[in-house]
């Protein structure tokens, strides 16, 4: 994909001027983040990092990603209801990965007690890169699917307008008019609102479960405001608050400070550092409750890297989605090579292959949030160290996707303006609501494009590596 803005990139004066306009437009549009120095105060805020120019995305792959999203929603939901599959798939992982094991224990505990929850809400984001094959034709390849706390649906709802203005300043108003409108925060809120309505208690609130450090609050506020606009009350609480003040009545209705909670929307709870003993207890209380959890613990487990790897095994998708051959084919077409490192011959073989040729692979632990994967020489060293230990089963191996880089400017507060060679990752938001056995909503809710300089192998926007972008379809 050649950048459509070659002429602009060479015109330094035009770039400087456009960057000034871009930053002010971002601030005005609300593309905001709290600062590293004051992560819990809104007195000082800055713009969230973003690209100066929208990045080229092949329109066929963009459409393919949208077209497969409802299939992925169905798949995640099916996995979340399949105890045998989760048990079998995660059996080796939970022996060595304490975090997954603790989530799994809660999962088993709530199943044994019997679920009080009957309405289910899934909000996920399936992420892709455009892999350049040997002949240079790009293909859509899934990086992962995020089933908990998938972020930036709010801020990205505002980037197209910023990029549109930048293009106009650069004399490209025709191109500006081709940028697609995009509003995931509205789609996410519609899902939450539907779940709230089906829960059936008009005085109940929606609780956003948030982290101690809340730099990305404005992204969440975009979704919150959509709910307030629909006259749905929203409260924000931390695990600590739930531990101190949360309670269940004898029908396992969840109460916070005397208010009944209809929906718990997790923007927290996806990495080990989110938990101490009290937070684990709070998590268990929430999972036992009748409130709609987004996601419930089963759906969080459905988003693990180990499950992703298992899905790529022959026959697995067919078993999970029987009688849906077309959906299975659409899903499978997005898979890159994924390999188990479980103890046994096949795991031994793949470990040896990766050690011999580490640049072909990514080594992934069961973690979220960016910055956890291993590449190249580091991958080789770690794998060599653990190749004969069961510890290796806490990882999966994945083929490394090789996108075609393009030049862009990454605008980041307090950083000099310089051109970088970049690659992009496209995410599609999925939203679904199930009541008992019946799917009552299943949608693609919008997209997110994140772009990073090629020298960073890993890391998202929150990790300070990638920046927000807007797709320019070519
Ligand atoms: P996390 O849960 O930490 O977000 P990801 O699987 O999304 O884990 O990986 C983090 C980042 O690493 C991605 O955003 C992407 O930039 C890079 N990455 C992950 N898998 C691959 C891959 N197979 N090929 C190339 N880059 C990858
Ligand atoms: Mg990711």
Automatic annotation (TrEMBL):
Cofactor note: Binds 1 Mg(2+) ion per subunit.
Protein's UniProt name: Glutathione synthetase
Domain Glutathione synthase substrate-binding: 204-302
Gene field: Gss
CC cofactor: Mg(2+)
Keyword Nucleotide-binding attributed: yes
Molecular functions per Gene Ontology: ATP binding; glutathione binding; glutathione synthase activity; metal ion binding
Pfam families tied to this protein: GSH_synth_ATP, GSH_synthase
Catalyzed reactions per annotation: gamma-L-glutamyl-(2S)-2-aminobutanoate + glycine + ATP = ophthalmate + ADP + phosphate + H(+); gamma-L-glutamyl-L-cysteine + glycine + ATP = glutathione + ADP + phosphate + H(+)
NCBIfam families: glut_syn_euk (TIGR01986)
Keywords carried by this UniProt record: ATP-binding, Glutathione biosynthesis, Ligase, Magnesium, Metal-binding, Nucleotide-binding
Annotated Mg(2+) binding sites: 144, 146, 368
Signal sequence segment: none
Source superkingdom: Eukaryota
InterPro entries: Glutathione_synthase, Glutathione_synthase_a-hlx, Glutathione_synthase_C_euk, Glutathione_synthase_N_euk, GSH-S_sub-bd_sf, GSH_synth_subst-bd, PreATP-grasp_dom_sf
Residues that, per the record, bind substrate: 125, 148-151, 214-216, 220, 267-270, 450, 461-462
Pathway assignment: Sulfur metabolism; glutathione biosynthesis; glutathione from L-cysteine and L-glutamate: step 2/2
Record's keyword annotation contains Ubl conjugation: no
Self-association state and partner proteins as the record states: Homodimer.
Binding-site residues for ATP, renumbered to this chain: 144, 305, 364-373, 375, 398-401, 425, 452, 458
């Amino acid at each position: 994909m050649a950048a459509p803005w070659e002429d602009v990139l060479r015109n330094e004066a035009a770039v400087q001027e456009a960057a000034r306009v871009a930053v002010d437009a971002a601030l005005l549009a609300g593309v905001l983040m709290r600062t590293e120095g004051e992560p819990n105060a809104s007195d000082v805020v800055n713009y969230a990092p973003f690209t100066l120019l929208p990045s080229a995305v092949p329109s066929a792959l963009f459409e393919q990603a949208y077209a497969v999203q409802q299939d992925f929603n169905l798949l995640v939901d099916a996995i979340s209801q399949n105890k045998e599959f989760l048990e079998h798939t995660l059996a080796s992982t939970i022996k060595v990965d304490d975090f997954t094991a603790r989530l799994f224990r809660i999962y088993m505990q709530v199943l044994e007690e019997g679920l009080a929850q009957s309405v289910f809400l899934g909000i996920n984001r399936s992420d892709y890169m455009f892999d350049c094959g040997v002949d240079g034709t790009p293909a859509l390849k899934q990086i992962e699917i995020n089933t908990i706390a998938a972020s930036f649906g709010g801020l990205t709802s505002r980037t197209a307008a910023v990029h549109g203005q930048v293009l106009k300043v650069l004399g490209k108003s025709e191109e500006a008019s081709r940028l697609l409108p995009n509003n995931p925060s509205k789609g996410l809120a519609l899902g939450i609102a539907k779940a709230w309505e089906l829960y059936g208690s008009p005085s109940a609130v929606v609780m956003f479960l948030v982290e101690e450090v809340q730099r990305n609050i404005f992204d969440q506020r975009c979704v919150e405001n959509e709910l307030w606009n629909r006259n749905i009350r929203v409260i924000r609480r931390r695990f600590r608050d739930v531990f101190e003040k949360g309670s269940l009545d004898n029908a396992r209705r969840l109460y916070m400070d005397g208010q009944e909670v209809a929906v718990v929307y997790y923007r927290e709870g996806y990495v080990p550092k989110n938990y101490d003993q009290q937070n684990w207890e709070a998590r268990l209380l929430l999972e036992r409750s009748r409130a709609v959890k987004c996601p419930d613990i089963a759906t969080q487990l459905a988003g693990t890297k180990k499950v992703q790897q298992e899905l790529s095994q022959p026959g697995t998708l067919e078993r999970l989605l029987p009688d849906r051959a077309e959906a299975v084919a659409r899903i499978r077409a997005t898979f890159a090579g994924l390999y188990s490192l479980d103890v046994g011959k096949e795991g031994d073989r793949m470990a040896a292959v990766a050690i011999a040729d580490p640049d072909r692979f990514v080594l992934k632990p069961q973690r979220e949030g960016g910055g956890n994967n291993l590449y190249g020489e580091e991958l080789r060293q770690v794998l060599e160290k653990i190749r004969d230990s069961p510890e290796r089963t806490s990882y999966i191996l994945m083929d490394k996707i090789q996108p075609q880089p393009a030049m862009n400017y990454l605008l980041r507060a307090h950083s000099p303006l310089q051109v970088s060679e970049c690659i992009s990752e496209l995410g599609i938001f999925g939203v679904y609501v199930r009541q008992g056995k019946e799917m009552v909503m299943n949608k693609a809710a919008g997209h997110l494009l994140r772009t990073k300089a090629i020298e960073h192998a890993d890391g998202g926007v929150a990790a300070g590596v990638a920046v927000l972008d807007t797709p320019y379809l070519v």
